[in-house]
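Lab notebook, design round three. We kept the backbone fixed and only want residue identities now. Task for the bench partner: fill in a sequence for the structure below.
Input structure tokens:
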């Protein structure tokens, strides 16, 4: 398996043309898109050496059956389309990406906090532009050598980001400590970067998950998003896209973290040409929103099958999911969704978690139900969706990103959970519906106590270990 990185998820048409030439020689018919705005393709063992040499000759950033160098992801793909930022521009993204003169070993995100297409904090080094200080970016760091996500004490200037990240990465990989301030002091002693002290908080507006498929109008142009249910993009289809890009003078193609293609700058006069191209290859751009708001591990057919099973179930039961996003976690991955369906190791049973306030940027997840059978997933998820709509309020529309700075802790406690609807009775909170005050132990409840959601008897509650991060 060849993995190919394109910084920031942006591919020049010339680079894609070169890649298609390699695929022709390697007898590869399809490409797969990855979460970190990268590409994958599988090569027969007999053609591995030849393909390796061709990729080297074309100067691609690639690996074979490894992931030692994760791609830099960016919200460049959504600039001007899903953003409302006052000063970030496409040119600034290009400046930032061009400033990287090394191959990162850590995950790096370069993002605008006013958009919802690209996750903010799924990297080890998360570069987030300030909404007040022009040309300066916050740096949020998550790494095993640190305790929780921490805010770097300085904001970094646009053109310094690549060199700064190289130095910060070296510190994180070679010094096993949990004090980001000491790391900053060492970096400042040995290097001079244009920076400014952090004097503001990063305040995030609550942003709904964007509908990124099809034609989206912006500034007298169009943004075309192409989703493929099986995540297969044929070489023939990509070659046709390149031909039309050349005809309509489009120089770049983008990959989104939702494993889709995006073409920016489609002139209204050329819209019909793209519609004809999609029709020629039978490419649908009118999929249900139920299946667009999913995050899946790269190259995982089992996760793909579970997603489509649940999408069909959602449709059959007419379940509303607007405003929510879902992920299937079958292996280690960075989560960027409000609901997580986590497969238990070696079992066809699942844990269901949700982000605090159903806001993925808060980086806190709470267990909602454990050991759920596959056929019961849709019913549990339906109740969780209703919980989301019940808790919606205007106070949750803004949030401040907290600098954990050694304050992140895991809490685990035993609570009682209804085995039918998975409602939790926690003595810390009591049961307001049944007029039970906080502090009352489950064992102290009357034998006629019933679940506040499904009316199951007290005897149908069982002990579970509730874990959360605070």
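Proposed sequence:
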């Amino acid at each position: 398996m060849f993995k190919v990185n394109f910084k920031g998820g942006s591919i020049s048409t010339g680079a894609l043309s070169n890649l298609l030439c390699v695929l022709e020689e390697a007898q590869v018919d399809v490409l797969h898109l990855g979460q970190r705005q990268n590409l994958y393709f599988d090569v027969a063992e007999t053609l591995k050496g030849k393909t390796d040499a061709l990729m080297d000759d074309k100067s691609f950033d690639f690996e074979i059956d490894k992931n030692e160098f994760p791609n830099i992801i960016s919200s460049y793909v959504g600039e001007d389309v899903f953003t409302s930022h006052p000063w970030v521009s496409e040119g600034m993204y290009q400046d930032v990406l061009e400033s990287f003169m090394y191959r990162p070993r850590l995950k790096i995100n370069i993002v605008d906090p006013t958009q919802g297409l690209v996750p903010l904090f799924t990297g080890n080094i998360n570069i987030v532009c300030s909404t007040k200080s022009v040309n300066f970016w916050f740096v949020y760091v998550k790494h095993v050598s640190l305790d929780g996500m921490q805010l770097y004490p300085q904001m970094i200037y646009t053109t310094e980001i690549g060199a700064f990240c190289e130095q910060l990465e070296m510190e994180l990989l070679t010094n096993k400590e949990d004090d980001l301030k000491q790391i900053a002091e060492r970096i400042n002693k040995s290097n001079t970067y244009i920076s400014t002290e952090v004097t503001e908080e990063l305040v995030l507006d609550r942003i709904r998950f964007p509908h990124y498929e099809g034609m989206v109008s912006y500034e007298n142009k169009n943004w075309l998003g192409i989703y493929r249910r099986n995540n297969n993009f044929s070489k023939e289809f990509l070659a046709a896209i390149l031909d039309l890009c050349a005809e309509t003078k489009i120089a770049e193609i983008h990959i989104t973290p939702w494993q889709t293609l995006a073409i920016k700058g489609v002139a209204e006069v050329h819209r019909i040409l793209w519609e004809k191209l999609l029709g020629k290859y039978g490419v649908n751009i009118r999929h249900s929103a139920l299946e667009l708001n999913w995050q899946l591990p790269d190259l995982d057919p089992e996760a793909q099958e579970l997603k489509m099973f649940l999408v069909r179930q959602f449709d059959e039961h007419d379940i509303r999911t607007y405003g929510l996003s879902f992920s299937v976690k079958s292996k280690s991955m960075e989560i960027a969704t409000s609901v997580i369906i986590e497969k238990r190791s070696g079992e066809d049973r699942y844990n269901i978690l949700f982000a605090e306030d159903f806001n993925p940027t808060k980086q806190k997840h709470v267990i909602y139900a454990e050991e759920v059978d596959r056929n019961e997933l849709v019913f549990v998820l339906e109740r969780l969706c209703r919980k989301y709509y019940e808790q919606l309020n205007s106070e949750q529309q803004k949030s401040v990103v907290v600098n954990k700075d050694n304050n992140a802790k895991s809490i685990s406690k035993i609570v009682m959970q209804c085995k039918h609807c998975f409602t939790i009775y926690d003595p810390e909170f009591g049961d307001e519906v049944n007029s039970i005050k906080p502090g009352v132990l489950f064992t102290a409840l009357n034998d006629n106590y019933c679940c506040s959601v499904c009316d199951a008897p007290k005897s149908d509650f069982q002990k579970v270990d509730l874990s959360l991060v605070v």
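Keep this in mind before ordering anything: The first strand starts at residue 2 and ends at 5.
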